[in-house]
Amino acid sequence: MAAKRAPALDRIDVKILVALQRDGRSTIQKLAQTVGLSARASLERVRRLEAAGVIAGYQAVVELSRLSRPVNVFAEIILERQANSGRFEKRLAALEEVVECWEVSGTVDYVARFVCADLAAYEELTNALIDDENLGVARIVSHVALRPVRRFSGYPETLLGQQPAKR
Questions:
Q1: Domains identified in the chain and CATH numbers
Q2: Do 28 and 45 form a contact (C-beta atoms < 8 A)?
Q3: What is the pTM of this model?
Q4: Strand positions, DSSP E, 81-131
Q5: DSSP helix/strand/coil, 114
Q6: Which of 140, 146, 112, 144 is closest to 128 using CA atoms?
């Protein structure tokens, strides 16, 4: 089955995406006022964006520091062989402490963000990854986060209206 093609977005669609990135709990009435449409037209556009997969979901932003004092660690991960990447990615996906992971170019293979109860828990986790010969982890370079300077709060408006390159 062919992948569903994203709809062409106009400036109103982009306004909707910007508004929902800022406040995913916005009512349709408030959204309609923000973008200058009727509530019905706004709802139809939101549903179209959801159906096309442009809006992938909604979630609450949890301020974890109000609940606990976890350690955030950014880890550069280098594999011995790329042949192990599938197995390694599957293992990382199963770890709830890995809240984000990117395959990257350059001298490392992955950059992952771990959120653990403490450094001892992080060390135990990474030692298990390194010790598992089936994963082929050559090295993990860890960077303990001291404090957030700027957190992700949505994509730039200028990128929301662009169409993906043809493949």
A1: 11-60 (1.10.10.10), 64-144 (3.30.70.920)
A2: no
A3: 0.83
A4: 98-103, 110-116
A5: strand
A6: 140
pLDDT, one tens digit per residue, over 78-118 is 999 888 899 999 999 999 999 999 999 999 999 999 999 99
Q: Which two tokens stand for residue 43?
A: 């709802």
Cβ atoms of 9 and 160 closer than 8 Å? yes
CA distance 74 to 133: 22
Tokens 């990257």 sit on residue: 104
Both tokens of residue 142? 């860890």
Beta-sheet strand order (sheet of 110-116) = 98-103, 110-116, 71-79, 137-144
- 3-class DSSP state of 49: helix
